[in-house]
Design a protein that fits this description.
5 strands; Nucleotidyltransferase, domain 5; elongated; about 350 residues; alpha/beta; 5-stranded mixed β-sheet; 13 helices; 3 domains; Arc Repressor Mutant, subunit A
Length: about 350
């Protein structure tokens, strides 16, 4: 060991150094740094340390000095080095952010990293770093629709009240129809899932007809009354209401939550309501399908059964839907509303204010 070097390792430091050497999850550079210090503390010379660790003389000396100056913690970090390319100034980042919030040139609908790099005179990777730092994602767009219903607040509280605090001795049903469900058959059979390969299916298909699913989701029990029909006119809707009337307990009031589809407000439907006084309709605000609980069931049906399904006829499609209904009713999950209606009202008001300020 060269003169002027005196490495003293305390018992606690030796314990930490040896644990570092044994740890298989730490970076290797930290392991050989710890080995250099331990070998130095054991009195080995520079040449022997070089031989056992495979490091150069300057490397051994550097980490001996680092441990003498900064102790164990000094072995865990690297000295910072100046970048080869000077960093971009704050004015460049500000210009990229400002440009991103404007329309791109030409006929493009949104900025890409390549377009912005050309416009700002920097690299595409620099553009992406600036976007990440400022939370900008011009390649993404979120869909929305604000309700213009003048009675939005009253209808919202009415529907949410049924979810949160349903009336006693009553049934709350969320009713809607999923129309134009297509019986799609693929032009070629797909390949099954295996290690290293996702399941496959052809992008093209053959249409074998359509059906409409009328569904009534019991909010309290989680069960679904469903029926597939060819069309979704008021005649089919009345037949479905008769099915609900036959299946729900006779002496209970029935509160039905549904949207503003014209079929639900047809004069003959209103006459049917007059003849069945235990039924009460509660309409959601316009453009607020997210408020209808049965939409969650429709989304689950599409994602788990219909999207990847192969149906050679409408009969096969109906049979698959009916089996899915039976499976849902065998393991029902009650609906739980968690959102604060006051926060929803405030968000809608902010949305309208922002749209009014822009347009």
């Amino acid at each position: 060991m060269r003169t002027g070097i005196s490495i003293i390792v305390t018992p606690s430091d030796r314990f930490r150094l040896e644990a570092l050497v044994r740890d298989r999850n730490v970076p290797q550079k930290q392991v050989w740094r710890a080995e250099i210090v331990l070998l130095s503390a054991d009195g080995l010379g520079t040449n022997e340390i070089m031989h056992q660790t495979g490091k150069s003389k300057t490397c051994v000396w550097r980490w001996q000095e680092r441990f003498m100056q900064e102790g164990f913690e000094g072995l865990l970090r690297d000295k910072t080095r100046p970048a080869r390319i000077p960093p971009l100034g704050a004015d460049v980042a500000a210009r990229v952010v400002a440009l991103t919030q404007t329309d791109p040139p030409g006929e493009a609908t949104h900025w890409t990293a390549t377009m912005m790099a050309k416009e700002a005179g920097i690299s595409a990777s620099s553009v992406q770093r600036i976007w990440r730092a400022h939370g900008l994602q011009p390649h993404r767009v979120r869909q929305f629709k604000l309700s213009n219903d003048p009675n939005f607040v009253e209808k919202l509280h009415d529907v949410v009240g049924l979810y949160v605090n349903p009336p006693e001795h009553a049934i709350v049903l969320s009713v809607d129809e999923k129309s134009q469900i297509q019986a799609l058959d693929r032009t070629q059979p797909g390949l099954p899932l295996k290690k290293g390969r996702a399941a496959t299916m052809t992008h093209d298909y053959k249409r074998n007809g359509t059906t409409t699913l009328f569904a009534a989701f019991d909010v309290l029990e989680g069960k679904v009354i469903g029926r597939c029909m060819q069309k979704h006119r008021h005649q089919e809707f009345i037949r479905f209401l008769n099915q609900i009337e036959a299946q729900v307990p006779a002496k209970k009031a029935v509160h039905v939550i549904l949207d503003n589809y014209a079929t639900h407000k047809h004069p003959k439907v209103r006459k049917w309501l007059d003849r069945h006084p235990r039924f009460t309709f509660h309409f959601t605000p316009t453009s607020s399908s997210w408020l209808n609980a049965v939409e969650g069931f429709f989304a689950k049906l599409s994602k788990r059964r219909l999207k990847r399904g192969v149906f050679r006829s409408v009969r096969e499609l109906k049979a698959a839907i009916n089996r899915f209904l039976d499976q849902t009713n065998n393991d029902p999950k009650p609906f739980t509303w968690t959102a604060d209606p006051d926060k929803i009202v405030a968000a809608v008001k902010r949305g309208h204010q922002l749209l009014d300020s822009i347009h």
